[in-house]
Predict the structure.
Amino acid sequence: MPRRPPPLTVTCPALLVGGSDGAFRALINNLMRMAEQLLALRSRLAAELGVTGPQFGLFLAIAQLAGEDGVSVVGVARHQGVTGAFVTAEAGKLVGRGLLEKRDSPVDRRGVLLSLSAKGRRLLESAGPAIQARNDTMFGTLSAREFRMLDRLVRRLVAGGERALADLRTTRH
Amino acid sequence: MPRRPPPLTVTCPALLVGGSDGAFRALINNLMRMAEQLLALRSRLAAELGVTGPQFGLFLAIAQLAGEDGVSVVGVARHQGVTGAFVTAEAGKLVGRGLLEKRDSPVDRRGVLLSLSAKGRRLLESAGPAIQARNDTMFGTLSAREFRMLDRLVRRLVAGGERALADLRTTRH
DNA sequence: GCGATTAGCTAAGTTACTTAGCTATTGAAG
DNA sequence: CTTCAATAGCTAAGTAACTTAGCTAATCGC
């Protein structure tokens, strides 16, 4: 008897080539693979600096978000999509390593402000070229046009993903 | 004194808009966010079927890879980028749940062949519409042209990521 | 001024994996 | 043919990257 193929994973005609969802599945596969590569690159880079991948992520986020004053724990948590507890713990380790500074907020006595220490800033500067080299290698073949295109497409997909997640939040429960 | 901004994360001019890497960082952020959405969707879908996200991933991979005969543990492992030990363990649970079948390979006495059971095939059929709905919602706004474009760009990025990873494998030890 | 939120911390738990080490079998090279 | 390195799969133990729960203290909304 003839084998029945698995049902299609998508029905939208624009995403089916020759009636098959093969290309679509390959795309999803490649998207996940790319994400893993980005995490692996971050992790490698972080290891050279003596921190873990997630710590490096927090470190870079804090470098970005801390203005003159610093950034709150929740501020970092929201930006990174993790819980405050995780930021507390990992940022604490980085403070222990002398890469971050933590001071009490002058405007909210519950709050705390995270920022790079002098040592942290030096580390960041020294890491710059390595980060650039990785990103240039991975993304360097993109033209400005392709970059804009990709940017817009990915934004649409993120919006679509948000909708899909919202859907099944309302569907059941 | 004027604050020094963090060093750029990329130098390639095509990726800098107005001399800033802000758009580039936003892109990376969105790419990671999209990957998280895909995992979250898989996880939700899996939960409705009573399995975990990774188990569902293995299940779908086996549905794809098992031809007439089935697919080996390593075959699945390589496709999914995990170790054989993990496939052994999780597929074992799915066998226990009656969704997969495991038989000894007729050509290699070390090997086993994984395939869907009748119950597994029924589950897969029943999950089809839900999977399609999610993917259609998330990716449905793409035109065929955009889909092809995205596919090509992502392939290039994966290739770039491979190069970047290879680089730092050779650079240091 | 009082209840509901919010900030941050700590401790314990969970998930999705990996590594290490074993046995059985195979393929390939002499 | 033999042997020996590589491969398939399994089990048990370990680990990384988080989360949840529960607490205290401070602030916000009315």
